[in-house]
Design a protein that fits this description.
The chain has 204 residues and is of the alpha+beta class. The chain has helices at residues 2-17, 121-132, 183-198; strands at residues 56-58, 69-73, 78-81, 88-89, 92-99, 107-114, 136-145, 148-156, 161-167, 174-180, 201-202. The strands form two sheets. Strands 3, 4, 5, 6, 7, 8, 9 and 10 form an eight-stranded antiparallel β-sheet that branches. A three-stranded antiparallel β-sheet has the order 1-2-11.
C-alpha cells in the first residue's frame, strides 16, 4: 500500500514539475491514412476492451472544463478544471483532470491543450513523450476519436502502460492521456479512456 501511495504522488508531481525526458527518441510511426480506423485486439492497443458506461459530458463552453472538443467520462469520476500555470509537460498545458478515486481506482485521465505548432501530429506527440518521462517501446497510429481525426500513442513506463491520443479540432489539438500506478489500475481504468476516445466531438 505504501508503494501505491508513493506512486500516486509521483503521478501528480510529474505533471506539475514538468518532468524531464530520458533522452530516448520514440520509434517512427508507419504512414497509414489519416482517416484509418484500425482495430487490434490485445496489446498494445486493446481495441477489444468495451468502453465504460457514460456519465458526465465535459468540454462544452458552459461545463467545468471548456475545451474545443466534448467527450464523456464514467459516472463517479471527479471532473476538475486545472488553472495552475505550471501544470504542463513540454508544450502541453493541462486544462482538465479526471480523478478515478471516487470510482474506486487510483489514477487520472487528463486533457491538455498544445501550445505552438509542429509539422505533423506525430511530431507533436513525440515532443510530448520526450518531456513525459520514461517511455519504452512506443507505438503510434492514426485513427478516429469519435468522428474526429486523431493520432494515438501507446507505450510502456516504469510501473504501468501509458496511453495518449491527440484529437484534431479547429482551435488546435487536444491531448487526452491515461495514467495509472500499475498494470492492474491501468486495466481497470482503460474502459474510461475508451469511452472518452469513442465519444469525442467538436464543441458547439
Amino acid at each position: 500500500m505504501i508503494r501505491r501511495v508513493a506512486l500516486l504522488a509521483a503521478l501528480t508531481l510529474t505533471v506539475t514539475a514538468g518532468c524531464a525526458g530520458d533522452g530516448k527518441e520514440p520509434a517512427a510511426a508507419p504512414p497509414p491514412s489519416p482517416t484509418a480506423a484500425p482495430t487490434a485486439a490485445g496489446a498494445p492497443w486493446y481495441d477489444d476492451v468495451a468502453p465504460a458506461e457514460a456519465g458526465t459530458t465535459v468540454g462544452a463552453t458552459d461545463s467545468t472544463c471548456p475545451l474545443p472538443i466534448t467527450f464523456s467520462v464514467p459516472p463517479k469520476w471527479k471532473v476538475e478544471a486545472v488553472t495552475v500555470p505550471d501544470a504542463r509537460i513540454g508544450n502541453a498545458v493541462m486544462r482538465c483532470e479526471f480523478d478515478a478515486k471516487p470510482a474506486g481506482h487510483i489514477g487520472f485521465m487528463r486533457a491538455w491543450r498544445i501550445e505552438g505548432s509542429a509539422p505533423t501530429p506525430q511530431a507533436t506527440m513525440e515532443r510530448f513523450l520526450e518531456a513525459y518521462g520514461t517511455v519504452r517501446e512506443p507505438r503510434f497510429r492514426r485513427l478516429k476519436a469519435g468522428s474526429l481525426d486523431a493520432f494515438e500513442a501507446a507505450w510502456t513506463g516504469d510501473d504501468a502502460p501509458g496511453r495518449a491520443i491527440l484529437v484534431d479540432s479547429r482551435p488546435g489539438p487536444v491531448l487526452l492521456t491515461l495514467g495509472a500506478i500499475d498494470d492492474e489500475e491501468f486495466e481497470a481504468m482503460f474502459p474510461a479512456y475508451q469511452l472518452a476516445k469513442g465519444t469525442a466531438e467538436l464543441s458547439e
